[in-house]
Amino acid sequence: AIKFFQLNTGAKIPSVGLGTWQADPGVVAKAITTAIEVGYRHIDCAEAYKNQAEIGSALKKLFEDGVVKREELWITSKLWFIHWPVSMKRGTGEFKAENLDHPNIPSTWKALEALYDSGKAKAIGVSNFSSKKLQDLLDIARIPPAVNQVELHPGWQQAKLHAFCASKGIHLSGYSPLGSPGVLKSDILKNPIVKEIAEKLGKTTGQVALRWGIQAGHSVLPKSTNEARIKENFDVFDWIG
Ligand code: A2P
After folding, report:
1. CB of 178 sitting under 6 A from ligand 1
2. 49 a catalytic residue
3. Of the residues 153, 223, 227, 231, which should be mutated to test ligand 1's pocket, given the most ligand atoms within 8 Å of the CB?
4. Does 162 map to a domain?
5. How far apart are the first and last CA of the chain?
6. Ligand 1 in contact with 182 (CB < 6 A)?
7. Residue 42 within any structural domain of the chain
8. ipTM above 0.95, yes or no
9. Of 40, 49, 116, 175, which one is the catalytic site residue?
10. Which domain holds residue 178?
11. What are the NADP-dependent oxidoreductase domain coordinates in residue numbering (predicted)?
């Protein structure tokens, strides 16, 4: 399977990244360290996950100890103003319907373009954008988005968005690639078809779900803070296909 995907900026994004949503402070540092040690070179973060300081400290230690170099890593972060295509009404904090407002995407995107121009970001992208919102963005963008990150797994295949992104050269990255069994309570890992394929191949259902994403051309961002599952989720490259 492919270890990297090339973005429209020329940068290469590793096909498996460690998800860090719901990776609590106190355990996330160990998860990051384990992941880097077993070969992950891509970490998916966000300001809203409230654990970036601990992730930063863990990475700093790995750099100082010579385990990995900064330039070998792909680190995604999301500023709250572009994490979802919504903004919050002034003075509200909680992410619920009555607090949401229409964001000013053109001015937000200009700020991200300035970040790209400065060299501080190798690529800029969006998250949770529909095809329509992406088209609206493409209509005004000087630098087109390199990535759109959305929920994506065998139970939510996003066929229309996949085709749209492919036609525009936007890489589609999948969060909750296992269907987020812990939080969203989906049953992808118990799906009979996924199970049958896993039994046939001698792999776990999680590995089959991840390979489905990679073979469809998506980077996948499984979250785990468990050592065995962090390893399992990265062990998806050495089989045929
Ligand atoms: P844990 O952190 O204890 O491993 P997703 O990335 O789709 O949101 O899924 C993350 C959830 O699935 C977490 O609850 C995580 O728990 C669990 N998980 C991660 N990897 C696996 C796996 N290979 N098999 C089963 N559950 C997993």
Report:
1. yes
2. yes
3. 223
4. yes
5. 6
6. yes
7. yes
8. yes
9. 49
10. 4-234
11. 79-237
